[in-house]
Amino acid sequence: MDTVYRKTKMGVRNEPDGFGLVEVIIGAAALALLIVVVMNALSSSLVLSQNSLRRTQAAYLLEEGVEAVRVMRDSSWNSSLGSLTASTTYYFMFFNNTWQATSTNIMVDNLFERKFVLSNVYRDSNKDIAPAGTLDNNTKLVTVSVAWRDERGTTTQTMAAYLTNLFGN
Fold this sequence. Notes:
The protein is of the alpha+beta class. 34% of the residues lie in helices and 41% in strands. It has one helix and nine strands. Strands 3, 4, 5, 6, 7, 8 and 9 form a seven-stranded antiparallel sheet that branches. The relative contact order is 0.13. The model has no long low-confidence stretch (mean pLDDT 87).
């Protein structure tokens, strides 16, 4: 291999032919790697943004679900919540300008499954809520859950609240 001598400000330097080609290849590889990293970051950002949107929508649906059960309670405890079976899964239906419980799954936006379960509440001798004791027919524990599927599987969020028969109806 012939050696090329080039004159620089500091003196004469010898450099083999083709060294500039290696620099171009390394630079192109570094640029390609940078493009791949940036594209991957953009893709991950889009997925995270989509997941954030779904979680926010689910949070609003949870809050609306708890409020819907409160509206059912306020309309008539005996004919709405009092008549529902504990530990049974119910879904929300908005019919005739009021919320109702149904056993038919009604998907929200063809994406979210929203349901609720009522649980019996027991009180101890001090009238505090306890895992066992005297059944309180005027208090229920409602657990609302919202589930949706994405590319990683099913995600579920839940919210629970105690409801009491405020109006005695």
